[in-house]
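Ticket #4471: structure output looks truncated?

Reporter: J.K.
Steps to reproduce: submitted the chain below (115 residues) through the standard prediction queue, then opened the result file.
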Amino acid sequence: QVRLVESGGGLVQAGGSLRLSCAASGSIFRINFMGWYRQAPGKQREFVAGINSGGSTNHADSVKGRFTISRDNAKNTVYLEMNSLKTEDTAVYYCKMIAGFQDAWGQGTQVTVSS
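Returned output as attached by the reporter:
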């Protein structure tokens, strides 16, 4: 069974920074993809950033230039560095992992950006 544990969320003022972490544990064969999604109140969950096993990254247009995803393969951990945060970045951020036939989500971590 795979478990994803996120950390690093919190309350920050607009223009500030936060760093999210997501550590995967359990019986993991080989991670193909790790990524971050977010869901704001009353909105659908949306893609934020992803990184594949080769290290290629993809970021949503709304966060390009402000957020950066990275990964530590040895620790099965993915990070999301968030800079120049805006109030519209307020959401619950979820970590996602795909490893072969395994598809897991974390429990989410709240990020609140105040004006």
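Triage note (M.O.): checked the attachment and the full token line is present. The chain is about 0% helix and 60% strand.
Status: closed, working as intended.
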